[in-house]
Specification:
There is one protein chain. By secondary structure, this protein is α/β, with parallel strands linked by helices. It folds into two domains: 197 residues, FAD/NAD(P)-binding domain; 139 residues, FAD/NAD(P)-binding domain (3-Layer(bba) Sandwich), CATH 3.50.50.60. Helices cover 26% and strands 24% of the residues. The strands form seven sheets. The chain has a five-stranded parallel β-sheet with strand order 5-2-1-9-19. Strands 13-12-11-17 form a four-stranded parallel β-sheet, with helices on one face. Strands 6-7-8 form a three-stranded antiparallel β-sheet. β12, α6 and β13 form a beta-alpha-beta unit. The chain starts with a strand and ends in a 7-residue tail after the last helix. It binds flavin-adenine dinucleotide (FAD). The site of flavin-adenine dinucleotide (FAD) has 35 residues, from α1, β2 and α8.
């Protein structure tokens, strides 16, 4: 019997755990450790501040389906790992493994600039999304300028763009759009770079959205400081703001940085190969955001990162599962797919409108890439949410 411990049970880790168990059957014991009992469909958090979704609509307790599929689930926070003795230390005891999958996602670097944590909102956690909802209720009583964007070194610009267009629509619904100067700030070299060096027609499309919705924008800027009623940019421009939402950079979680033997990068990500296996420990694997992904473009005036989206997170979970099964069966031909060669499949919500981003690979060179706007309704994003929650709730991890 081989024991695999998976840390982190979201897009990457839940997929990896279920796939190892599905493929390894009785020969494989799988223990999934997550500090949260819930599976949360993070992409729909952008709708929570505006009341379009409640947290309960986009999350569920994952224990029952994991148990049904034969995966042991432990709610605990992993503190560190000693890869030399194959031991994971958690706040609920120690776990020994034959294989370890690290799928712990990101930690948000709020201290990227003074005042970001105190005065800017962040929508990427349930708490953050609910606090943002409360702040918007207050904002309605005394509307004024709004700044939305991403800070230097951020990589998840897509979610901030989505929130921007959703806020614009919300302001119109509240009949206060005329009272609000809306600003978009981004470290990207140009609109729609997205940390993937853009998509055909992407910049033109985003420029036309900005002009159509009367949104002021600044590219190639970072945040020097956020104060109660203003955002000071790295070029010293001061933007007044009654409500600020920023996407800070993501870094690796404390569990990784507390485990120096993992030789994580300075930003806390794991230096795995295209087979997602650690180069120094053949029984340690990483999937999802925990993976180090080298920058696929030359950094511009203001640094920013590449996005690590849901589809490649799920895919790398599958690749890791397949490779662990191959290794336990004595095979040496491991499946390899570099992060940037995984197909690009993303839907950007634009406030009951949407843009589909499809490409043969996430990073260039791509043989085919297209952005398809849908101005009628954001039904693809809604369908994707319903599909992903259905698939995960039923433990159908092998589906795309
Ligand atoms: C606001 C927002 C919107 C987004 N929208 C989209 C979108 O539209 N499309 C898209 O493709 N992607 C989107 N993304 C990105 C997508 O959410 C991520 O790609 C995906 O969640 C990554 O999956 P993951 O499993 O690697 O990490 P995560 O989903 O972050 O999961 C990490 C898991 O590890 C657990 N964990 C962390 N540390 C520990 C520890 N020490 N011990 C135990 N457990 C631990 C956490 O509880 C969590 O369950 C969005 C992200 C954000 C923030």
């Amino acid at each position: 019997m081989t024991t695999t411990v998976v840390i982190g049970g979201s897009f990457a880790g839940m997929t990896a755990a279920l796939e190892i168990k599905r493929k390894g059957k009785e020969q494989h014991k799988v223990i999934l450790i997550d500090k949260s009992p819930l599976f949360l469909f993070i992409p729909s958090l952008i709708w929570v501040p505006l009341g379009r979704r409640e947290i309960k609509d986009i999350s569920f307790k994952k224990e029952a389906i994991l148990k049904k599929k034969g995966v042991d689930f432990v709610v605990a926070e992993a503190v560190k790992v000693d890869p030399k003795t194959s031991t994971v230390f958690t706040d609920h005891g120690e776990f020994h493994y034959d294989h370890l999958v690290i799928a712990t996602g990101p930690k948000v670097k709020y201290d990227v600039a003074p005042g970001v944590e105190e005065f800017a909102h962040y929508i990427g956690t349930p708490n953050g999304a609910m606090k943002t909802r409360k702040a918007l209720e207050e904002f309605k009583k005394n509307p004024g300028p709004i700044v939305i964007g991403a800070t230097q070194n951020a990589g998840c610009m897509g979610a901030a763009y989505e929130f921007l267009f959703n806020i614009e629509k919300w302001l119109r619904e509240q009949n206060i759009r005329k009272k609000v100067d809306l600003y978009w700030i981004t470290p990207e070299d140009y609109l729609g770079h997205f940390g993937i060096d853009g998509m055909p027609m992407g910049e033109t499309m985003l420029k036309s959205f900005m002009s159509m919705f009367n949104i002021n924008y600044r590219t190639q800027v970072g945040v020097k400081e956020v104060q109660k009623n203003k955002v000071i940019l790295t070029n010293d421009e001061i933007l007044p703001s009654h409500f600020t939402m920023l996407m800070p950079p993501f870094i690796g979680v404390d569990f990784v940085t507390n485990s120096p033997e993992l030789y994580a990068t300075p930003t806390g990500y794991l230096p795995v190969g295209d087979d997602y296996r650690h180069p120094d420990y053949p029984n340690v694997w990483a999937a999802g955001i925990a993976v180090n992904v080298p920058l696929p473009f030359t950094p511009g005036k203001v640094p920013f990162a590449s996005p690590k989206t849901g589809y490649p997170s799920d895919e790398t979970g599958k690749i890791v599962a397949e490779n662990i099964i191959r290794v336990t069966n004595g095979r040496t031909d491991l499946k390899e797919k570099a992060w940037g060669r995984i197909p690009g499949l993303c839907i950007m919500d634009a406030g009951k409108k949407e843009v589909l981003l499809l490409s043969t690979s996430l990073f260039k060179p791509r043989t085919f890439a297209i952005m398809i706007p849908n101005v009628l309704y954001d039904f693809n994003k809604v369908l994707f949410e319903k599909y992903f929650l259905w698939k995960t709730r039923n433990g159908l991890s092998y589906l795309p």
